[in-house]
Amino acid sequence: MIDWNVAVQTGTRLLRPGPQVGHAEAREVVEQLRELSRIAQGHVRDFTGMRTEDDPAPATIVDRPGWIRANVDGFRVVLEPLMEQMAERRGTGLLGAGAGGVVVQAVGSRVTGMQVGAILAYMAGRVLGQYELFLPPDPDGRAPTGRLTLVAPNIVHVEQELGVDARDFRLWVCLHEETHRAQFTGVPWLREYVQDQMTRFLLASDLDPGAMLDRIRDAAEAVADAVRGGEGNLIDAIQSPEQREILDRLTAVMTLVEGHGDYVMDAVGPEVVPSVQQIRSRFQGRREGGSRFDRTIRKLLGIDLKMKQYAEGSRFVRRVVTEVGMDDFNKIWQSPETLPTHAEIMEPALWIDRVVGPRPLDAPKVNEA
């Protein structure tokens, strides 16, 4: 189990301070982000043609501690029921019965809470925004099942670091996150599909002590490899064979949604974000930079894999929309069966042939972006 209170306490204690902003400027940033979020909703709806909520809730603007608390709440919604199932499957054999087992479990939960908190502290200084899929249930049943969150100090920090137009950058970020809102509110089955794959992944953990020892050994080797500058990461190291198969499906859908968001934020064009080309160029350089320590941490946590997802997914979406147009691209959201496989993301023609159907050799390409 995980001591979530320890995770929050550890994360907030390890946080780096955000940019120095006065109260008046902070209020101005919050108000503008809410306004730009609403503006982005219309651009995303018009550009993608996706059905979205009729009256979506305004974006929730948080600071870094607020982002940590929100993510811990989401983790609890997803993980606590799963950990109970896993504990029932394990029984008491691994920890032993009685007070001794309880003490070991309590100590372990605090250690795990500190580890989770340390990871969240690192991430809380990097994340610009997200669409939170998993929220604590609303007793009245009136609250939405998801929430769009923007991390104001991180947005301000990055726009200052890049030296780009503040309003353009904020709208650019909102376009990406509002695309995620459109995906998960406009595609009725998508949220449940992602949750199901995550559940299968977590429940597929090896329970055999020997297999767990092998996973720990692999994780140690991944750490050493990442420090040496290799490609090792903890995400790959701790997986069982069954988990790797599930992760392939989960990675494919997340590559699609992340790449779709990256494509839309650029493709709406300079009519909406005048300095979009400058922003993309400088932002991409920032993604690929950083100190040796920062690059090592990114590898260990799988963040570099996420950056690869952005690039591969965006390339897939751009190719398909160029070849067949946005209407045919949107067939991708019909069902889990129309989602691309990893192989199809790497070669979009395979998905086009399977889902859209072969096109005549002389069919013109559609230039929508």
UniProtKB/TrEMBL annotation:
- Please indicate which superkingdom the organism of origin belongs to: Bacteria
Query: Which InterPro entries does the protein's record reference?
Result: CHP03883_F420-assoc, Zinicin_2, Zinicin_2_N
Name of the protein this chain belongs to: Zinc-dependent metalloprotease
Per UniProt, the keywords (alphabetical) are: Hydrolase, Metalloprotease, Protease
One Pfam annotation, family name?
Zincin_2
Q: Which GO terms describe its molecular function?
A: metallopeptidase activity
SUPFAM superfamilies assigned: Metalloproteases ('zincins'), catalytic domain (SSF55486)
Q: Does the keyword tRNA-binding apply?
A: no
